[in-house]
């Protein structure tokens, strides 16, 4: 009896844990897989499994100028927001990372707060603010709004990298006569670059995907990709959206694997 | 000479806080000022802005419909967080015990949804849960149901889709917390005769509390504000705070009331975050002490 109990105990515990995690992992992957499969349907509906196979919806995508226009806008706004986030975010992360002062801690919480506050409320606040100061909504207001919600990712990842940087390296560099700027350029920057890159990558993806801020801060002429897709989905279930989703999933996986190679993204985030 | 060398060694590893000033200025102008405008506008009694008062708040808090929307939004977050915790904890546990290859595979599977567009992920759930979707097709071919089940536009559908969309936010902090647990503690528990379940309940689970608190906070905050998934899977009949806010602001152009909704929603989220932060401090003290 005493010898049997542990085995049953181990079996049930491992069974439950592994069972639950396998269900979770399948559910995490399934939606992307299903979209990829459905996007190759020959039919006009999102029936699963598809009645036949074709690449017609990808060809259709080639002619979908509305979606392409929206994708271009989203890309431009995401690129500017990411650039601005990296410049402002890295500069802010440098002093905050090692400082224990109260003002540094307060700044840190302020810079992180867009992560938990409802973005839709911030979008509305931004619209009210720009209309109060008389600045009409445009790509500029979009970039400003996106930068506020994307900069936390850059700040957080850069601070995490800086925290792992051994200060002895900086002291060595200084004792060998390097100026502060040289030390920053030759020692600090190369060592925290993976952190900056992964922060920038997440910032770019979250800007490209942003709906709540864009809804309020864009002008009528600036259609953004996720909003276009969302509105298309509210109206009718278009298979072209499946093909577009397929392109986005493959592009995301490709960049993720590249970032995993360059920066070790998975270790960085866990 | 020695003194100047010492000062220099302190200098090189720290940076002047003034480097944070550009971002601080940017946040003051484009984050804090807009929030201040939002607060001011919420105290206008009508859209003309001629009178001031707490009318909008009285209207929200005295209206059973509005309070119902707030309550169902907060309750939705509880359900999604619970589902994410039940399934996310085992994933983090498996991640902590696996070898390097399986470890990074699990991490990439967890990260994939986080980095895929929310619209795409939600769209996938429409394909899965729809009348002709994968779930209904399977159930009907097995003869378990005669007619397609209604899964889209239901509470179950919204919770399932949101749980998948937000799962990474739960798993990432849990994985960090579990990888920090000293394996000797687990071994000690087993040597002393505790079985796996007892070790889980008395050692691993309590020590993972900081991760549970951090993950729950992120998951909760993200799921109650997840506007796209809520509106596409929930449909027109289920109204949650973000959509309520958007309808008032955009369709009805009632900015003061929309501002009041935003402030009430912000306060609700901040209250939840504060509770979780307090729990987090307590649990860290517990895990380390």
Outline the structure in words.
Chain A has 270 residues and is mostly helical. Chain A folds into two domains: 33-63 and 240-270, no CATH class; 73-235, MetI-like (MetI-like fold, Orthogonal Bundle). Chain A contains twelve helices and no strands. In chain A, helix 6 (139-164) packs across helix 8 and helix 7 (167-175) runs antiparallel to helix 8 (180-208). The longest helix of chain A has 35 residues, at 4-38. The relative contact order of chain A is 0.13. The mean pLDDT of chain A is 88. Chain B is an all-alpha fold. Chain B has one domain (55-288): MetI-like (MetI-like fold), CATH 1.10.3720. Chain B is built from 14 helices and no strands. In chain B, helix 8 (155-179) runs antiparallel to helix 12. Chain B is globular and about 75 Å long. Chains A and B meet through helix 1, helix 3, helix 4, helix 5 and helix 6 of A and helix 1, helix 2, helix 4, helix 5 and helix 6 of B.
Order of helices and strands of chain B: HHHHHHHHHHHHHH
CATH class of chain B: Mainly Alpha
Cα shape of chain A: globular
| Poorly predicted residue ranges of chain B | 1-10
Tell me roughly what share of residues is in helical segments of chain B.
over 70%
- Specify which chain pair forms the largest interface: A-B, 105 and 101 residues
Q: Oligomeric state of the chains?
A: heterodimer
**Number of DSSP strand runs of chain A:** 0
What CATH architecture of the largest domain in chain A do you see?
Orthogonal Bundle
| Overall structural domain count of chain B | 1
